[in-house]
Amino acid sequence: MTIKIKQTWGLLFLLFVAVTYLIIFFLLNSSKKSDVIEIYFADRVTAAHKILIDKYNKLNEGKIKVIPIDFPNFDFSTNERKEMLARSLRGRGDGIDLFAVDLIWVQRFAKWCEPLDKYFSDDEKGKILKSALESCYYEGELVAVPLDLVQGVIYYREDLLKRFKGGDNIIRRINNDITWNEFIKLKNEIKPSTPYYIFPATDYEGLICCFMELLLSLNRNYFSEEGFNLNTYEAEKSLQLLVDFVNKNKATPEIVTEFTEIPSYEYFINNDALFIRGWPSYDKDFKESPFDPEKESHLKKIPIPHFDSGIPTSIFGGWNLMVSKFSNKKEITVDFMKFLLKNESQEIFYRESGYYPIVNSFYENPEYLKKYPEIESFKNFMKTGVHRPAHVDYTRYSKIMSFYFKKAIQNKISVKQALIECTNAIQTDKVMIKEF
Prior knowledge:
Layout: H1 3-35, E1 37-43, H2 47-59, E2 64-70, H3 78-90, E3 98-102, H4 106-109, H5 122-126, H6 130-133, E4 137-138, E5 141-142, E6 145-146, E7 150-151, E8 153-157, H7 158-161, H8 167-174, H9 180-190, E9 197-198, H10 205-218, H11 222-226, H12 233-247, H13 261-270, E10 275-278, H14 282-285, H15 293-296, E11 299-302, E12 314-317, E13 319-323, H16 330-340, H17 343-353, H18 366-371, H19 375-381, E14 385-386, H20 394-409, H21 415-427
Helix pairs in contact: 2-17, 10-12, 20-21
C-alpha cells in the first residue's frame, strides 16, 4: 500500500471518527434537551415574574423550564388578553399549560381547566387568604389559585394639593374616611385649573369596577337580593354620581369615556390632574416605562370615598392561576404554581410589582411586619374589600352594563334609560357583543 493510499484511508478514518463523534454528540444533546420538560406560562410578565421564573428554572436546571408567554400592559387590554386565551383554549391547544386570569374570568374559563382540589390539601388552602381564595371556586370545586390581589384606591398628587391654601389640612381631610359629598365639596372649594378626578369610563370592566364600588357601598348584598336587576334606587344613585362627575360637577373631563386604565393614568400624569381611581400596583406598573418620574414620585394613596349613607367599599382585583385541562404536564405545572405561592415568592411579588401577598403568614410574620410596616394598614383596608358577583355570564353582563353606562356618562341617554335598557338586555339575553 502506497503512502498516498495510506493517507487517504487515514483521512477517511478520521472523517468517520469525527462524523461519528458529531452524531453521538448531537444525539446525546438532543436526548438531554428532550428530557427538559417545558411549561408554557401565559401572563403579563412583570419584574417579579422574571425574577421568579429565572429562580425556578435555575433550581430545576436540566429538568424543568418555564417559558413565559407575555401579555404586556401597553400592548394588550384585559379584554384582548381574555379573547386570545379563550381562542387558544377553545381550540384545545396544548401550547399553554398555565395561565393567569382576571379573577372575574374564573367562572367563564372553568370548562377548560383542570380541577385542583386533588393537588392542594386543606392545609395548603388554609394558608391562603380567604378573600383571595374566594374567587377560585366554580360550583363548589377549586379550579384556580390566587397569584396576587389588589383593591381599588384613589391616588392623589401630594405636591399639587400642597400648593392650595391649607394644603396640609386638605391632605389630612382626604385621609380621614372622606365621603363623595365631601370630595365634591373640596373640588368646589379649591377650584382647580387642572382636571380634578379621573376614572376610566370607556365600555370595559374598569368602568364597572367604579360603579360596583358605589353600588356595593350602599348594599353589600345587592346581587344576592336583586340579581342583575339594575332598575333600582341603589343602581340609579350609583350611576348618577359617575354621570354627575362629568356633566354636573365638572370634576371629570368627558374624554375619560375613551379611557381604559393605562390611558387614564397617562392623562392624569400629563395633565396634572389631582385624583385618579386606580389599583395599588400603579406604583410599580409603570416603573419600566414611566410617563414622568418626577410627577409620579409625588403620588400618594387613599381609600375610595363612599356615600354618606353607605360604608367604605373597595373592589377586589387581581389575577388567579389556572391549569389547562389540555396540558400533559399537570403535576409539574402545579409544582410551579406552589412555588409561586411560597412566602419568598409572594414577598417578591409585593416588593417588585406592588401586589398584595395572598398568604396569611405574610400578614402575621414579625419579620415581614418589621420590614414592611405598611402591612398593618393593608389588613384594615382589606376589610372594606368586596368581590364582584361570581357568575358564569358575568363578563357578558359586564359588557352590557359598560355599553349603556358609557352612553349615560356621555349624556346620550338618561341614567334611568341606561339602567332599564341594560336590565332588559341582560334578562332577555340580548348581548350586543358575543363572547367565547
